[in-house]
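Appendix B, Record 12. Input sequence as logged:
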Amino acid sequence: MTGAATERSEGFTGFPDSGLATAVPNLFFSRVMPEISDPAELVVSAYFFFAAQLNKRRPHYVSREELAADRTLIRALANLTGKS
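Logged structural output:
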């Protein structure tokens, strides 16, 4: 097995030192996250910060349509419901 299947069977072993990072505003953790009760909302919120930073446009934003068409996000949400 390779890739994601191996990671699932062996467990997550951490991020590589050379990996890029995604900035998340501190206020997200203190004000927004405590109000989130739906796991799907947390997944979409976390993915939003990642996707927004990929865009070169200013200000950084991601449209609802872009999120709805993103295969990685769709797969993550499907994993929550077991429909992957």
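The chain has a mean pLDDT of 87.
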